[in-house]
Amino acid sequence: MRQNRQNQTRNLPCQKRSIRHSFCLYTHYLSINIRSAMEYKSSFFLTALGQFLVSFHVFLGILFLFQRFSNVKGFTYSEVLLCYSIVLLEFSLAEMFARGFDQFSEMVRSGSFDRVLVRPRNELLQVLGSKFELTRIGRLLQALAMFFYGILQSHILWTPGKIITVIFMLFGGTCLFSGIFLLYASLCFFTLEGLEFMNIATDGAREYGKYPLSIYGKRMLQFTTFVIPYALVQYYPLLYLLDKRNGVFYVFLPLLSVLFLAPCYLLWRFGVKCYTSSGS
Amino acid sequence: MITMEHVCKSYRIAKRNAGFKEACKALFHREQEEIQALRDVSFTIQDGEMVGYIGPNGAGKSSTIKILSGILTPDSGQCLVNGLIPWKNRIRHVKEIGVVFGQRSQLWWDVPVIDSFLLLKDIYSIPDSVYRSNTDELTELLHLKELLRTPARQLSLGQRMRCEIAASLLHSPKILFLDEPTIGLDAVSKLAVRDFIRSQNQLHGTTVILTTHDMQDIEALTSRILLIGRGEILLDGTLEDIKRGGQTIDETIAQLYQEYEI
Q1: Cβ(B10)–Cβ(B77) under 8 Å?
Q2: In chain B, whose CA is at the least distance from the CA of A6?
């Protein structure tokens, strides 16, 4: 009886891991995470509200600053707001969908990564699916509100090129932040502990990202162009949006930051190879 | 068929003495010791066998299971499970095995058990018909009907373990690794789990490899016993081979451990 069934299972094409298939599994993970979160409704809503308030407080910070100064290195209030809201949107999206990496140190230490390895799916997909930080919806809403407010205030003349630029910025930025989360997780293979200093690259970048990166000086701009390419999703395309620079080049620049995922992924593969389980 | 030939595995373990001062010292200089978890382990297990894998704590049982299930890569030696090298063909290999870690749950804590099962159906790409017949069979044999709609966090240990075992068998694995499946269970649950494992073996010819400290499990289930100590296979035989001195099987095993000084 079971022999028959085994044959059926085995005859399925083994290597046919279509992207659609993985995407289905990913959404299934998402749905089970939502169902889990719904078990604790009040906790969920309060945390989400907290996230909203934290970002709102940063917004107030910018507002008060600009009541005293009319511009920061040539950028006006509404321009800074637009810049920050885009960074915040990217960050919240990455956080919602790639925060599984954040708890990865716990997975390695407790040995639950073993479970991931005995399942016939990509390790990365399973780790991603293990946790979605859905309470970050609070921050996302705040970012969205600021984004639309910024757009209304900035009097940008919207052309198709600029709309595409914004979409590319969001996409590239989300990939970039996810890459940093992935980097963070990969390091856990070697240290077993989460590394707090990595937060400079994530939460720190979110905070620095409030203002166009040029205000921090030339060195910072170089670093964020060539090492961790924040400037590619923030400063340069912003200049294009604000008509301070011209050229189709700037539209596609944010996509370049997707390349950052490659070294992160390689380090991850290397980490999986080095993995030595823990305990019994 | 499972074959292991001359498998060795060692770990590096950091050691330090007790105390705050020592902990500070260890920050800068760490004494490392190499532990030989497995030395030259070889054995063969045929399809449909039920094997008890016993040995004292830290003897290398878990390391063996982890190598066989593709989690760890050995330092040297050969290992083939149904013609595949576990750590090289991980994804193809793990489709054919089921693993139950008695101490770790694979069910989602906050959602009903059936939701976890449905996720596993997607993970293993189990066809609808197979999934339906397997859940029907497992529900009946393990008496899960009432449990499936309860969130895992509200199940008792015994109930949860029955669900865990069912979850590991949804994809009709040919080999089942059980790592202490009856730990902490009451008498009734233990008997139920044992009956079930036996019936799976008889009905579907599932190969079962069982590690446990509960000698009654071994007595009730397995026909062959592998005894491991200090990373070496010390004894490979039937239950009768082992039952020499001693009144109960626990005493016999204790004697064996003494005999081999492990």
Answers
A1: no
A2: B172
